[in-house]
Design goal:
By secondary structure, the protein is an alpha/beta fold. It has one domain. About 15% of the residues lie in helices and about 20% in strands.
């Protein structure tokens, strides 16, 4: 199973904080891939202290449709909202 956490871009710390509780629990689930889907990765995002533990999960290459479940803090492109 693949879970995606959608952010519009890697510079949005406010939205990141809303998905952080889910990421903190993600290590306890075996056999599940976790990805932070950020279509726009800002230069140097890896050095942001808030991302320190989760920076390896960021990707701009994984299509949202390739995830079995996507968490998003607000609306996503195309008008989809919430969970689906």
């Amino acid at each position: 199973m693949r879970i995606g956490y959608f952010l519009r871009h890697s510079g949005n710390l406010y939205y990141f904080e809303s998905i952080k509780p889910y990421l903190d629990r993600s290590g306890s689930f075996e056999g599940i891939e976790h990805h932070i889907l950020a279509p726009q990765l800002m230069p140097g995002y890896e050095a942001v202290p808030e991302y320190e533990d989760d920076a390896p999960l960021f990707t701009s290459d994984l299509p949202i449709g390739d995830c079995d479940l996507v968490f998003t803090p607000r609306s996503v492109p195309g008008g989809l909202r919430g969970f689906w």
